[in-house]
Amino acid sequence: MAISRTGLRPDPGSFRDPANRVYHLGEDVLRGLDERAAAEWRALVGSDFFPPLLATGKVCGTEAVDPALVGGEGWAAVLRHERIPFVSHPYEWSFGMLRDAALLHLEILRAALPAGFTTKDGSAYNLQWRGTEPVFIDIGSFTPVRAGEPWAGYRQFCQTLLYPLLLGAHLGLDFQPWLRARVDGIEPDQMRRLFGGVRRLLPGVPTHVHLHGAMQRGNAGASTADVRNQLRAAGYSHELALATVRGIEKLVRRLRRRPAASHWVDYQRTCGYTAEDRAAKERFVTEALTAGPPARLVLDLGANDGRYARLAARHADYVVAVEQDPAVVDELYRTLRAERERRILPLVMDLTDPSPGGGWRGVERASFADRAAADVVLALAVVHHLAIGRNVPLPEVVDWLAGLAAPGARVVVEFVHPEDPMARRLLANKPEGLFPDYRREEFERLLTGRGRIADRLVLPSGTRTLYRVTADA
Amino acid sequence: MIHLAYLDAGSGSLIVQAVVGGVAGAAVAAKLYWRRLVDRFRRQPTDQR
After folding, report:
1. InterPro entries in the record, alphabetically (chain A) (predicted)?
2. What is the mean pLDDT of the segment spanning A388-412?
């Protein structure tokens, strides 16, 4: 990533639209606009649809600042955006999150169209989160609409938002691996193959999948400029564009995730904590959270039903709750969303396969490791799943935890002794003697190598130990 | 006004939006295809000459 002498860093994910570009300067998120985009921004501010979206927080907080802040880059105007506490990618969201993000995108488009504006694109990457509240971040996407033109972002909307939702709603498939593997989303031709036979008739499939795919094939030789002119000549109107958006919105509202049996949904209920253990654990975690300055970012790894993420949110600015089971994350998201929680962001991710860097040069979408520098890392009842369940060597687990912590950060980690019923259950699936290092003394020795053990507690049941480690600076 | 959309909207993706927009939209799409057909027949004799 290029860093200028002033410390200005162009965002590696912001290059597709040459009319504007996002930069980072210290804590500030800035956007440079060319002449035309600057004129469009002024029109946007003067419109009657944009200020209310800004006031209600549906689009990210934005103000014009002195263009000299991004001097030497040749921009006509510069905007400063509200800082999103933790940038996440659509393949880390649950079904309900992707659905709510899609609905917000459509709501914004529906508000923009009557005011004579549209969005240039329709990507899931136009959205981010404040906790469980979606935010539209791509201010550069707004542009005046031309009469008689369909939405340019429709294909992108299908590929990155609608199709993944159809996979979840109609087939019960998790969309995350599809989006993670393809930065531009799923193409109509791939979808078509998954929706043969009677599945052709499922809501949204005949038109948005099959007809869409057929029309793409049938018009592969026609330029979009020609097709735009033909549509205008055939009478495509503003009202029609609005009706199309309403139709998609209606479809998305109908989509529900097809429930799949999930072993983790009942985990909190079946994982065998006594009331005393739980109370002691909660006290220990609270003390760890309040032991230093209030944390800006807490990572809760293996968050499950979010019990400790909620506890952390009482003492921190922002909590990212990571859990591998999409059904569990969806459940957590729905609960937190109903409570209008804006400081806990639930994310879907397998801790042994965290999001890699993606897109152009592998940096367009930052890897999880590059985004995570937490002041407090919570790894409660997770080490045994990695070390025994997934065969990750214990020193690697400790290194990894330390790597997610900012220098001087606190790591709260639970070690489940080999004789604990949960550990025994995991060990029973592996050949005997496979993990000679999986011992409390060895774990403590490894922790001391990466920081200072500031506090420790054996839970009343006697088979689990909690540690608070201050990571080496 | 020059159109400066940075994204390739996809020709088929533009037309399908008319169809999705209900009866009025389907009529627009039908008109578009009808005109293409008529244009093709009109052009053919000159092409063959």
Report:
1. SAM-dependent_MTases_sf
2. 94
CATH 3.40.50.150 fits A271-471, yes or no: yes
Which residue is associated with the tokens 């429709």? Answer: A154
**Which residues does chain B have within 8 Å of residue A117's beta carbon, measured at their own beta carbons?**
none
Where are chain A's structural domains? 8-81, 90-254, 271-471
Rounded distance, CA A225 to CA A449, Å? 63
- Interfacial B residues in 5-44 facing A (CB < 8 Å): 5-22, 24-25, 27-29, 31-32, 35-36
Q: Give the whole-angstrom CA distance, residue A14 versus residue A21.
A: 6
Q: Whole-prediction pTM value?
A: 0.94
- Return the residue matching tokens 């809760």: A300
- Report the complex ipTM: 0.85
Question: Measured between beta carbons, which residues in chain B are less than 8 angstroms from residue A247?
Answer: 20-22
> What CA–CA distances, in Å, run from A346 to A22, A304, A323, A468?
25, 10, 8, 23
**Look-up of token digits 């989160």:** A129
- For A60-112, write each residue's pLDDT tens digit: 999 999 998 888 788 999 999 999 999 999 999 999 999 999 999 999 999 99
Question: How many structural domains is chain B composed of?
Answer: 1
Residue A240, token pair as written in the block:
């029609």
